[in-house]
């Protein structure tokens, strides 16, 4: 079941933004509605035509933020931006947070503040916060880039890039870096990515694009 944070609790999220944290480590998944592993000519042709939406997911393995333990919890941010993500933005982005329903009120606030610290301006204009089941699972595969995220109405499934099957121009590279700092990740194919919830006045479903990152994150 989805729950909304009260306005007073939501306001506290921003008060925690500058609070120091002990080292937080965990898994990270990112999927966008454009290719990030691509050639410059293809990327240039898509500027501001695609890639304005993204799903970002953090699964904390261990760590504390604002004196609150976040061990084992997850948080997902769904973004709608004015311009292709990775380019200079001409307007404010909108973000929805989906927070692990097993988190306490203090942990929900700390999880969002942690994500905002990593994501910067893209995650500051929060239009909704939901509490729901957050599943972020990693599977063993050759490039360590196979993951599945299911959080409320947000879904991401990734697979390893195949240099034979996934190459188009032969000059592919990680054209766009990850959207958040403190991440060590490799490009992956998003076999499925979607958002069908409320709040952004936009929904999307994409299949099999080269638009994901899978890896780890550290917050210090």
Mean of all residue-level pLDDT scores: 88
Provide a count of the helices: 3
Shape: globular
* Structure classification: mainly beta
Radius of gyration: 16 Å
| DSSP strand count | 16
What gap, in angstroms, lies between the N and C termini? 33 Å
Poorly predicted runs: 1-17
Along the chain, the helix and strand elements come as: EHEEHEEEEEHEEEEEEEE
Percent helix among the residues? 10-25%
Our estimate of the beta-strand percent is 35-45%
Number of domains: 1
* Largest β-sheet summary: 12 strands, mixed
Describe the protein's topology.
Layout: E1 3-4, H1 7-15, E2 24-32, E3 37-38, H2 40-46, E4 53-62, E5 64-65, E6 68-69, E7 74-80, E8 94-100, H3 105-119, E9 126-132, E10 134-139, E11 146-151, E12 154-159, E13 173-174, E14 183-195, E15 204-206, E16 209-219
Parallel strand pairs: 8-9
Antiparallel strand pairs: 1-9, 2-4, 2-16, 3-13, 4-7, 5-6, 7-8, 10-11, 11-12, 12-14, 14-15, 14-16
Could you give a short description of this structure?
With about 220 residues, the chain is mainly β. It has helices spanning about 5-15, 40-45, 105-120, and strands at about 5, 25-30, 35-40, 55-60, 65, 70, 75-80, 95-100, 125-130, 135-140, 145-150, 155-160, 175, 185-195, 205, 210-220.
Describe the structure.
The protein has 220 residues and is mainly beta. Helices cover 14% and strands 43% of the residues. It starts with a strand and ends with a strand. Residues 1-17 have low confidence and may be disordered.
